[in-house]
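One-letter codes give the sequence; the fold follows as tokens. Both lines appear below.
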Amino acid sequence: MNEQEASVFEVQRLLEVEELDTDFYRGAARPEEGGRIYGGQVIAQALASAVASVEPGRAAHSLHAYFLRAGDITRPVIYRVIRDFDGGTFANRRVVALQDGRPILNLAASFQRPEKGLAYRGPMPQPPGPEAAKPLADFLTAAMGTLPWPFRDLALALDMRVGQIDAKGADPSVGMPGLPSQCAWFRLPAGLDEIQARTALALVSDYGLINTALLPHEKGWSSPDIQSASLDHAIWFHETPPLGEWLLYTMDSPWSGHGRGLARGTIFTQDGGMIASMTQEGLIRHRP
């Protein structure tokens, strides 16, 4: 097993949850690491727990999550699912993520049976393609010296590449004019199933959003004078993402203030199909 295959295996492991009892699940941990749990991991495992309680034939179309406390990456997280609603078309679940008996995240997810309806999608920005983008692993190694979880396995398993970064919103090929923007390319491993494809999007969706809100301040999440953390996160799934094909993740930030920053993201296929949209508000404040 080469390094990329090992990273794919690790990402797939983190997308799965173990059923402990009716509506109680446990997510995998990383005892060899240290520090806080990556927020995308908790969102993905909470979504996987909700999916496990929904009858087949309904797919997640949206989720909303609030981060309450930092989680310990070395210890597993317990997920409690509350079955709020099962209708003819839609189902709704709440999930509480717990460590030491205390909530670290609250999530609500909605599921829908497939149906046809009015359709429209906005245009996709046109940044340079993935072949012109730098591998995220190389970019972060140059910036940080080491590549901690989750960036090591995400970067390798998803072949993530850093696209254009436009702190001033001057390049319309990256995002909306006037807004700080950046983009990244990635592709989901071919071995995922349809459910894992959506939970993998939840995993990767937490990447880059806080950093986008910090762009106009010429800071990053790893800046030693900045304290940053995800506060809340929302995802709308428009389509099931294709596997093994390049996906474009565009991000912009319309506002920051009062110690918080707002960022938005959209994931497209290379031919312009809109796969998912997300919004996140994060804590961004100077350390005392």
Q: What stands out?
A: The chain has one domain: 3-114+133-286.
